[in-house]
Amino acid sequence: MILPIVAYGSPVLRNVCKDIPQDYPGLAALIENMWETMYYSNGVGLAAPQVNRDIRLFVVDSTQIFSNLEEDEKDKYPDAPGIKEVFINAHIVELQGEPWSYNEGCLSIPKIREDVLRHEALTLQYLDEQFQPKTSRFNGISARVILHEYDHIEGKLFIDYLKPLKRKLLKGKLDDISRGKIHVDYKMVFPR
Fold first, then answer.
1. Whole-model pTM above 0.90?
2. If we measure between CA atoms, which residue out of 40, 143, 6, 29 comes closest to residue 85?
3. How distant is the alpha carbon of residue 47 from its chain centre?
4. Is 191 part of any domain?
5. Containing domain of residue 131, as a range?
6. Which residues are catalytic?
7. Phi, psi angle pair for 38, to nearest 5°
8. 1 vs 176: CA distance, rounded Å
9. Does pLDDT of 64 surpass 80?
10. Which string of DSSP letters, residue by residue, matches 143-192?
11. Helix then strand then coil, % of the chain, to nearest 5
12. pLDDT tens digits along 1-52
């Protein structure tokens, strides 16, 4: 089932999310719906707050980015061909490498893309879909997508990394999004 994406300005996007137990009600269905919603919306990651759940859950499929790169671009990123994974109760162990810039967007903040600096790599502790504990290191594009989604479960948005002047220049567009004055090809819910 395709779920509506929560728009910028909704309080749930600013919540620090809670860890969940293995018997969290409807978890398997929620994960399946999040994958379906993400693909329908042409996203490469989706966090639970974006579908109005304040829990530490997100899904990432960076393989889509690699499948759309030109052949000569694929060698730029060390994590080819990308990952497709579910992250439950994720917590960063360590950020590694130098920050690098990449143009990011967000399904909750449609039609706005900006360059954001993020670390090259990270080590993450999390549970997989079967609630098996993992500690893994990610780098390149996959690390960037994970960090973007991780920010969502920490109540942060990619626009928080922008300089104050840039945020001020985007204020009108952000206000329009929060008021529902935007057209997108996927379902959205707006703050009241």
1. yes
2. 143
3. 5
4. no
5. 5-176
6. 149
7. -60, -50
8. 27
9. yes
10. HHHHHHHHHHHTT--GGGGS-HHHHHHHHHHHHHHHTT----SS-EE---
11. 35, 30, 35
12. 999 999 999 999 999 999 999 999 999 999 999 999 999 999 999 999 999 9
